[in-house]
Amino acid sequence: MGFLAAIGRAFLVFLGATGNVAMFTGIAVSHCLRPPIYLRQVLRQMIDIGYYSLPVVGLTALFTGMVLALQSYSGFARFQAEGAIATVVVLSVTRELGPVLAGLMVAGRIGAAMAAEIGTMRVTEQIDALSTLSTNPYKYLVVPRLIAGLTMLPLLVLVADIIGVFGGFLVSVYRLGFNPASYISRTWEFLEPVDVISGLVKAGVFGFMIALMGCYFGYRSRGGAQGVGQATTNAVVAASILILVFNYLITGIFFSDK
Fold this sequence. Notes:
By secondary structure, this protein is an all-alpha fold. The chain has one domain (37-253). Helix content is 86%, strand content 0%. The protein has helices at residues 2-32, 39-51, 54-76, 85-123, 126-132, 137-174, 180-190, 193-219, 224-255. α3 (54-76) packs antiparallel against α4 and α4 (85-123) packs antiparallel against α9. The longest helix is centred in the middle third of the chain and has 39 residues, at 85-123. The chain is elongated. The termini are far apart.
């Protein structure tokens, strides 16, 4: 009975946490749909999420495309199917690797920063001071981050797709000896709009989830510096898991009939 009781307690804790996240999400989304919107804060978060994340996302995409081309060549050469490398690279990057890797990198960088910043404001009572000054904390802290995450991650993923495909092109042409015109032709031949659109939809969902988890755990942090550190860790872990879960769900929606 003790084992069953432990399972029941864990399940109840999970349901409680899910309910808290759902309530926080509902309140935050409702504030996103109502004025006022602090545009200066939104712009600041867009620059932080988009512009300052470009180097790490770009490098990740570049070397991912390069490694993907090398690995595809070593595998396809056994079946004399080297011509499919261009197709594999472009589809893998646009559908999966671009949005997932960009989301994970941004979660590690931005999700942790959001949780730490808001958590520090919580434990030092700055959020209570905002309420005292008649400033809604959701409007000032949460909404700008959600809007920035939802809008900037698709742009980052679009850039990552281009850089990743370019990395595969560099390796294929200058390392493996492919004809440049033939490689580009096969890339465009098999790339469909739904491949890019599905990746951008994933990126939008991932960006919202990253910002939501960072804000949620930061907003609910307690216990001083230790609580802020725990909130930062939980935000990154939760965002990473949600990225993988929603990646599967969205892939099933777009490509279930293929």
